[in-house]
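Illustration: GLPGLI family protein.
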Amino acid sequence: MKKLLIMIITATILFVVSSLKAQEFSGQAVYFSKTVMKGMKMKINGVEMSEAEQEKFEQRMNKMNEKTFFLDFNKYESVYYEEQKLDAPTSKSGMVFSSSDTEKIYKEIKTNQKMAEKDFFGKEFLIVDSLPNWNWQLEGETKKIGDYTCYKAVSIKKATSEELADYEESKKKQEQSKTSFFMMSEPKDRVTTVWYTPEIPVSQGPGEFWGLPGLILEASFDDTTILCSKVVINPKEKIRINKPKKGKKITEKEYDKIVEDKLSEYKDGDGVIQIKIDKN
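Result:
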């Protein structure tokens, strides 16, 4: 009986120590995000932009879509946020051309919770929802990113019938319209490819990515690539994971509706988004 008690006490101590070590494990990863705009057709008062105008516009957009992000993480939590910079310039129409809104994304694996702090057109929102399910397909391919051996994983999100129907309707309106607007791209299956390393045993990654047996160091989807340039494990200055708190609390679905309603303010009678382009 005495031996059994000693074994139970020993096992309990080892469990507590192991748990404390897991909680103390923390780090910070730095990511560079780049979105490349290619071949987006545009019209100005019914006339397509020249190749030179198109190239100049794409260069400006691509430069604006180069960003640096930080991921602070421990064993079960992470917060992803953008490097602080001056406000992005706006067009004469007042619209901000950017690949994403200013945001801070918090992920908690134990409770399967996501919290995102977003600033959209000067209004702050706190989005609280479940973590997305990526349904990763693990593949055997490996490569080195810095000093870490990484493994490939792929997620495929099928284009929905609603997206295809919206595209066909928008295409008809765009062909008839004489206003200035972006040409909507045909919806396709969205393939996301990531590279993760089990050498950093946290199920975290940039943005909303998570759910793999190791930190995600690279992600590519659509025309965007996110690449980790630096990882610091257990830095001298303790990493603190602070949950987002600012903004009106809503769900992801409610936020999407707010964005849709706001963009509708920029649509003309044909239902397409009007823009003004400064050629200088």
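Reading the tokens back as a structure: The chain has one domain: 26-264.
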